[in-house]
Amino acid sequence: xxxxxxxxxxxxxxxxxxxxxxxxxxxxxxxxxxxxxxxxxxxxxxxxxxxxxxxxxxxxxxxxxxxxxxxxxxxxxxxxxxxxxxxxxxxxxxxxxxxxxxxxxxxxxxxxxxxxxxxxxxxxxxxxxxxxxxxxxxxxxxxxxxxxxxxxxxxxxxxxxxxxxxxxxxxxxxxxxxxxxxxxxxxxxxxxxxxxxxxxxxxxxxxxxxxxxxxxxxxxxxxxxxxxxxxxxxxxxxxxxxxxxxxxxxxxxxxxxxxxxxxxxxxxxxxxxxxxxxxxxxxxxxxxxxxxxxxxxxxxxxxxxxxxxxxxxxxxxxxxxxxxxxxxxxxxxxx
Length: 335
Fold this sequence. Notes:
Layout: E1 13-18, E2 22-29, E3 43-49, H1 51-61, E4 66-73, H2 76-88, E5 90-98, E6 104-111, E7 117-122, H3 136-139, E8 142-147, H4 152-163, E9 167-172, E10 190-194, H5 195-202, H6 208-222, E11 225-229, E12 235-239, E13 242-246, H7 259-272, H8 277-291, H9 304-313, H10 319-330
Parallel strand pairs: 1-4, 1-8, 2-6, 4-5, 8-9, 9-10, 10-11
Antiparallel strand pairs: 2-3, 6-7, 11-12, 12-13
Helix pairs in contact: 1-7, 7-8
């Protein structure tokens, strides 16, 4: 009897992500406007968005082979999302098109005053992928599965991956209604979450001995890696060797949109290079820092040469950012 070798190292993709992609309209402002005022926009770009999608963009730019499973609408933004994926080198062929449905969209207000961003989003619940629609044979084609939630379709995908020797990775930034973490944490080998997620779980800020004990407790559940990204404070986490922290890289922040997403994608890229969990965290932190020097979630993602140069010298070569900014400002993906 012939059996499929689920542990073969020869896979078509390094990483497959599961998500409904988003289209972002990123507006650069001097500051967030007050009610009943007007303000000139300083910069505007259209860039694809979504936590997993942008993470895949980072993994791909840093040398990984990636694809995405999910749903889009049958609209202009859906077509643009696919065009951009192809340009990035992400395989969009597993995306399902929902007829008479619009692709998720966000308007992101990036303000110079704080260096932060505010997000207005629209998401049609008809885009939710059902458990029945998930083709697990697609997951078999990758070494890593990348998700961002614990909803039924994600739980099915994670369970399948764990049962078939596929590493699992999660960007946990927020919880949807009714979503739980701890019953499913054991399904995730690399659980990387935001400080906002920490506060949602524990109703306290991530700091001190409490943060340390929480990280260690969670790592005992998943027996892998647990990390909380803390913005300008760096990160804290736990792996098989115990608790660790790491400061953020010091850069001139232009826009934090997508910084966490890029961290996750770069972390995956580092794992593909056989970095250990803490080496991967430093690599990913540097990639996220570089991204923060450029508007939008994707234009600032470094390539391998740019990232290595920054790690060795502390200097950011703007060449790759200029290329991608020109691409997004040209709106080529809409044609």
